[in-house]
Amino acid sequence: MAMFLSKLGRLAFRRRHFVALIWVALLTLAGVGAASAPAAGNTSFSIPGTEAQKAFDLLEQRFPGMSADGATARVVFKAPDGRKMTDPAEKAVVEKTVRELSDGSEVASVADPYKTHAVSKNGAIAYASVKYDVSGMELEESSREQLKDAAKKAQEAGLTVEIGGDALQAAPETGATEVIGLAVAAVVLVITFGSLIAAGMPLLTAVIGVGIGVSTITALASTLDLGSTTSTLASMIGLAVGIDYALFIVSRYRGELAEGRSREDAAGRAVGTAGSAVVFAGLTVVIALVGLSVVNIPMLTKMGVAAAGTVAVAVLIALTMIPALLGYAGRKVRPAGEKSRLLGGGRAPSAEKAAKPNMGTRWASFVVRRPVAVLLLGVIGLGAAAVPAASLELGLPDDGSQPTSTTQRRAYDLLSEGFGPGFNGPLLMVVDAKGGDDPKKVFTDVGDRVEKLDGVATVTPAAPNKAGDTATITVIPDSKPSSVTTENLVHAIRDTGERIKADKGAEVLVTGSTAMNIDISQKMNDALIPYLILVVGLAFLLLIVVFRSILVPLKAALGFLLSVLAALGAVVAVFQWGWLSGLMGVEETGPVMSMMPIFMVGVVFGLAMDYEVFLVTRMREAYVHGESPAQAVVTGFRHGARVVTAAAVIMMAVFAGFIGSSEAMVKMIGFGLAIAVFFDAFVVRMAIVPAVLALLGKKAWWLPRWLDRALPDVDIEGEALRAEDDPRDEDRALARA
Q1: Helix, strand or coil, per DSSP, at residue 118
Q2: Would you say 716 and 624 are in contact if contact means Cβ atoms under 8 Å apart?
Q3: What's the Rg (C-alpha) of the chain?
Q4: CB of 150 closer than 8 Å to CB of 100
Q5: What are 431's strand-pairing partners?
Q6: CB atoms closer than 10 angstroms to residue 731
Q7: How confident is the model over 612-642, as pLDDT tens digits?
Q8: How far from 251 is each of 179, 356, 415, 453, CA to CA, in Å?
Q9: 322, 329, 333, 332: which is closest to 19 by C-alpha?
């Protein structure tokens, strides 16, 4: 592989005009496709194999005009102080608003609050329910505008009016922190390379890669039902890995220049060695992201595949466009250790300064001398950070987790104030009595039994379909949607349904957004272990090929588990317990997003293997060429610690930039990935890994002879390239083997 990638790097260096033209053409093509494609909406939710989805499917069959997956809106009215919604003036305004809402071309029905008894007991608050024929993703902008205009007219008449539901979804905003993240990345690159030109290359290639990836996602959004969150997450991961991959190749290029190689030769060797690590690191990230499909939730599968595609583009750009840009830059990219004149360079370093070991060397030497102490400190520290993860509660964000500045959140709060906390998360029971002797009696019996359960505030009368064999019953809990109490109520209703099925032969299914969220959380929990086995197993085999060792990949996997548990603990502390919530802009604490653990496992594992590959391949390279195990650790840190540190800081800055998002899911993922990178890069890879390798010594690189013969030789250390320079290196490598 090293030889092939080296030739590719040299070719890109020589044919830089052609390579640059190809990538610019791809970016232009993707941009034109994105500009001409219809705007992405909110992705539809489907969770095959769950009771909530089964109930939705049954509603579509038995209630064909109901549009079970259609968008909904609740227009909430509050009377001025001292007045009631039943007063003639307020009632006239509401009735006029209901008539205006009914005129919408996509509106299926509008419920008059005075006919449906949707007025609070104290008379201060009322709401009108609007049902649409199409889903929130398919809803036209004109329908949203009509909804806003009707609410605005009611406000001008003196009422407080807010709108909740999925018909009026605010577009997520990332805010200025995303720009700050990129600015931090730029500063770190300048400090690392001591050159504005060299620092600009990773940023430029990362932006081009993300531009191609996100534009392609936008162009296909309508066709493939991709939501806005998909492109946000793809840009988050694509930026981080794109900058890192380019950083490693440019850094290796400068190192090769420092050894006196020509620029074309240095570009080839940089792509052949660091590029090999980039390929395998990118492959682990792709495996982790595509592996999300095992959860069998279409939305999560699409997010993972889209992000994996962006990572694949980042790898290809790093392997081809970086050497092309190095060809354009010429002498403006200096050898390692030299700075540009603009940043105070141009003078040769003194002999004393050149001989002084760098920070990476000093740190690795310390760890090699005190491996047990460093190992214990690292493990205990991560263990302490992981303690909150034991209290992990899973759920999905609803309007109650929106910022208080949004109309959805204000509508949520008004409904809770007027009708109780459970009113925002009604449970919809679907009773299938087809084939029974007396369906009406079954419907009544189901309602009576459920009404006696703990945690039930209200049960509405059954609403049968035209055939009279299926009915819907709405249950209002007395607790908020995301609470454990509501989850227990859903399980209690389903247990009651099992007994009713045994007694009456009727099937009782529970659905609605709250039940759907509970089912998603359960599905995520059930899929976590199979997903871990698949992703970690495949990556373990891949790392065995890369490192030709059993213990090094095993250590890498165990270190990853430590860092991801610690990161989950930090997420629980901030978003569930409320620690530092003000600093993070978390206005409402609650359960952790149900897909967060499995998403973090996938993404963090891929990124963790990045640092493992980049850092440990340098150590193996030194060991293969004759150094002792302890000295190889120090050598690996001398060459790689500065770059890995810069890569981690950049990745943290990019992820942290998304903490400013107005969307709760993006905010939580941004924080979780940023803190996970911190734990994995600076505690696991920089402390625990060298400590373990120092303790293992030569055993770290042990591989059974039969397995060594069976594994393909991918030559990630660049043995073939060294053999080109000095045939004796090939003989020494064969002798050690």
Answers
A1: coil
A2: no
A3: 30
A4: yes
A5: 471, 508
A6: 11
A7: 877 888 788 788 778 888 999 998 888 878 8
A8: 24, 20, 57, 65
A9: 322
Q: For residue 251, give the nearest of 336, 190, 316 by alpha carbon.
A: 336
- Count of H-run helices and E-run strands, the chain: 26, 11
CB 110 within 8 A of CB 102: yes
Cα of first residue to Cα of last residue in the chain, in angstroms, is 19
Measuring CA to CA, how many Å separate 280 from each of 63, 183, 542, 543? 52, 28, 8, 8
pLDDT of 593 over the 90 cut: no
Query: What does the alpha-carbon distance between residue 663 and residue 668 come to, in Å, rounded to a whole number?
Result: 9
pLDDT, tens digit, 9 for 90 and up, residues 538-564 = 878 888 888 888 998 888 888 888 998
Sign of torsion over alpha carbons 277, 279, 284, 288? positive
CA max distance for the chain: 98
Q: How far apart are CA 490 and CA 510, in angstroms?
A: 7
Residue with tokens 């086995």: 533
Concatenate the DSSP letters of all residues of 410-462 into one string. HHHHHHHHHH-GGGGS-EEEEEE-TT-S-HHHHHHHHHHHHHTSTTEEEEPPP
Task: Evaluate if residue 643 carries a pLDDT over 90.
Answer: no
List pLDDT tens digits, range 431-459.
Answer: 998 877 788 888 999 999 999 999 898 88
C-alpha to C-alpha distances, 103 to 106, 109, 147, 150, 562, nearest whole angstrom: 9, 10, 10, 11, 57
DSSP state of 68: T
